[in-house]
Design brief:
297 residues, alpha+beta, NADH Oxidase, 9 strands
Length: 297
């Protein structure tokens, strides 16, 4: 039997066109089942819970009824220095070594709040978060991933790559870490969470319209930039997806339609932390304007 769902912030304009109503989107009550189109119905938080973090004093109050549009007072001349926002994006690097000092809880809540306000297709916000700050749990998860990678490395990469796409259980494994595992001394595995005291798992709601995995990328980018603004280091961990092949989703309280796709490590950077200094490539950009096309680099 169908049950009432609360459609909250799932594309206000879309909701108005569907239901022909003018009430706030958080109060639109629909009747739906999991089989109905995901673009119409999303089980979101209860009415009145939107600013619970602010009520707890963990983060400043966020008001979304009237978005604030940033206005440019004047045009920036060509060749001007990067502004502080641009510089933050250009200077941030992945951090792979952290101090043992734990990240303050209210820092993490600020980061989650910034992630919650990320852009998404249809404003459907197909995500949820799991935060792990228990060192024993993090170590146990890392050991499982390391052992699984070690088993994967026993098969030559060319054999995995030669499989038909329909036979693969996902994209081919990254050749560099697999090669490192094959040549590493016994007992030495790849660091997965890099000793970070806090790990955030952004979960993907598989009901999301379009490509919810892209929405998760936007969420993660916003959160790592928020962490950077607070003086914290972060690193994307794609290997975290391996946890799906265990009982870890159940232990973390992850249920359908949510899926664990990757993780973000967060912590205070150690003085000699490893950074990714790979030179950025310059790609050709096709530029169309005034009926003409030109290449930009």
């Amino acid at each position: 039997m169908a049950k009432p769902w609360i459609v909250s912030r799932c594309g206000w304009e879309l909701a108005k066109s569907i239901f022909s109503v003018e009430t706030p989107s958080a109060q639109i009550i629909a009747t739906a089942t999991l089989r109905q189109p995901a673009s119409y119905y999303f089980l979101m938080e209860s009415i009145g819970m939107t600013n619970q973090l602010a009520a707890d004093g963990a983060v400043p109050e966020t008001k979304s009824e009237k978005p604030i549009r940033r206005k440019a007072n004047q045009l920036i001349p060509e060749g001007s220095p990067w502004n502080e926002v641009e510089e933050a994006f250009l200077k941030r690097r992945s951090v792979r070594k952290y101090k043992r000092k734990q990240v303050p809880e209210h820092y993490v809540k600020r980061i989650l709040e910034v992630g919650r306000y990320s852009a998404s297709q249809g404003n459907c916000q197909p995500w949820r978060f799991v935060v792990v700050r228990d060192r024993d749990m993090i170590s146990e998860m890392e050991l499982f991933v390391q052992n699984t990678l070690a088993m994967m490395s026993s098969a030559p990469p060319e054999e995995v790559a030669s499989e038909e796409p329909s036979e693969q259980q996902g994209p081919p494994p990254h050749p560099i870490p697999i090669k490192l595992l094959q040549e590493a001394p016994p007992g030495m595995g790849i660091k997965v969470f890099h000793g970070a005291p806090t790990v955030i798992f952004p979960l993907m709601d598989s009901r999301g319209i379009g490509h919810p995995e892209i929405d998760l990328g936007i969420v993660g980018t916003n959160m790592i930039m928020s962490a950077y603004s607070l003086g914290l280091g972060t690193c994307w961990v794609g290997f975290a997806e391996i946890l799906n092949f265990s009982d870890w989703p159940q232990r973390l309280g992850i249920e359908e339609p949510y899926k664990l796709v990757e993780a973000i490590t967060i912590g205070f950077e150690a003085g000699d932390a490893q950074h990714n200094f790979v030179q950025r490539e310059t790609h050709r950009t096709a530029w169309f304007e005034n009926g003409e096309q030109r290449d930009m680099y």
